[in-house]
Amino acid sequence: MLTLNFTKFPLLETERLILREHSLTDAEALYDMRTNETVMKYIDRERPKDLLEIKTFISTFNQGFENGDNLAWVIALKENPNQMIGSIGYWRTDYANHRAEIGYMLHPDYWRKGIISEALKRTIDFGFNDMNLHTIKANINVENDASRQILIKQGFVKEAHFKQDYYFRGKFLDSEIYGLLNPKH
User: Fold this and answer.
1) What Pfam families would the database entry show (predicted)?
2) N or C terminus of the chain with fewer C-beta within 10 Å?
3) What domains, with CATH codes, occur in the chain?
4) What's the pLDDT score for residue 159?
């Protein structure tokens, strides 16, 4: 059975990026992103009411890592590792089937610079090689073509299109599920 029991939070690096653990000092940057309608356009989640809610959210992230439930990184540029510009991570880990869902978000100032692709490639490698995942899935809003293209570029394949399977703000929305199999399995 799959387990996520790392003795300490795994710090990941790429050519330009540091992927690190969330800190309470990231609360303002995360609040700004999660209340930015441009960022959240295709992320169908309620917006946080205040910084306290975000700090609780960060504590929950970190507790989720400690419990082995999820693994979420802050995306930061190497030249400024304390400034959060985005996040990426694994949620909804299905231990019995060695499967986890990946999700990500990025501040619009950093869009179209290949940052999510770079972070995604590194976290996929980590998911397959260090976590021993068999499958990584992504669930996207069907209108989010940018996310779809990033996933396809990384080798993800569309597995499903669910009709009106998600209820958010008074409407039923469609979802697309993309999957990537571990090439070593």
Assistant:
1) Acetyltransf_3 (PF13302)
2) N
3) 12-130 (3.40.630.30)
4) 97
